[in-house]
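Changelog entry

Holo records now carry the ligand SMILES as an explicit input line rather than a separate metadata file. Below, a converted record for NAI, shown in the new format.
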Amino acid sequence: MTQVYDRVALIGLGLIASSMFWSIKRGGLVGEVTGYARSAETRDTAREIGLCDRICDTAAEAVKDADLVVLCVPVGAMGAVAAEIAPHLKPGATISDVGSVKQSVIDTVGPHLPEGVHFVPAHPLAGTEHSGPKSGFAELFDNRWCLLVPVPNSDPEAVAKLRALWEGIGSNVEEMDAEHHDLVLAVTSHTPHLIAYTMVGVADDLRRVTDSEVIKYSAAGFRDFTRIAASDPTMWRDVFLTNKDATLEILGRFTEELFALQRAIRTGDGDMLHAYFTRTRAIRRGILEAGQDVDAPDFGRGKAAK
Ligand SMILES: NC(=O)C1=CN([C@@H]2O[C@H](COP(=O)(O)OP(=O)(O)OC[C@H]3O[C@@H](n4cnc5c(N)ncnc54)[C@H](O)[C@@H]3O)[C@@H](O)[C@H]2O)C=CC1
Ligand SMILES: O=C(O)C(=O)Cc1ccc(O)cc1
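Structure line, unchanged by the conversion:
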């Protein structure tokens, strides 16, 4: 595979940054990858496991001379990290991110960036419930979507290079505007996570069902909820605080539908329930016929998947 960038800096060394590093290495896509994490413990762990070609003790040192800087921290921390690194960015460098919400990143990172630095926000639609520098693996992004969300003045050449990197990493790349991205993700990822958190909370509150019974008798649906509800609390707090409007919009629609189903159960309206479940079954079958494997444990699997 051909090299896309000479030097890339990864800021925040968790699941996404570590997976990016291993897949960049697998593909020989970058000359040198530097890394920075704010905690000394994370930097030590990264050095121990060979994560990044060089781990730096300051963000300034990590981004110095980097052609691409990728912010891999929770969405709520993006602005502060951008302010810290901005004075040290190389003129002509590209700055990107992997945050799950895009308008907030554009609003909080954009104002800190100096003239001559290209800003191309991005979001890989792949992840797990695990976090930290040891949780990454090279195959995470294979055949998954990565959405690029260029800002109005994003340089087309900078966008094309970032696209080449994500394609080299194994993803299918598409471009989308931030508002649309945040609404789509509220439907496909953010609200489902909130529902999983709620369902696990409800089971935990049910004193009649002991923990061991919940685990012993949990069928696949509830198990999937517990996996999703084990996701990183800081990351998901930030997702809901920053994608507030779209999540509330989808949640409003969700509760309306839930009340309609609740009413059908109370009144014994079997026809309504049957018609509803027939419609939702057709949606899933439609997804499968379109060639998308929705059995994957996460949302947003790419077209090329089996
Ligand atoms: N976990 C997932 O499934 C996915 C996550 N994302 C996005 O990727 C980004 C990173 O997520 P993960 O790698 O999963 O998280 P993680 O929790 O594994 O790693 C986050 C890293 O950021 C650092 N960090 C946290 N707060 C910070 C702050 N205030 N200043 C500087 N560094 C800070 C942490 O120490 C850690 O090194 C988030 O914005 C998330 O929304 C995107 C796709 C999937
Ligand atoms: O683990 C799962 O089920 C996921 O949904 C992974 C995920 C989490 C957050 C994202 O922004 C994108 C993908």
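Spot-checked after migration. Confidence is low (pLDDT under 50) at residues 294-306. The longest strand covers residues 5-11.
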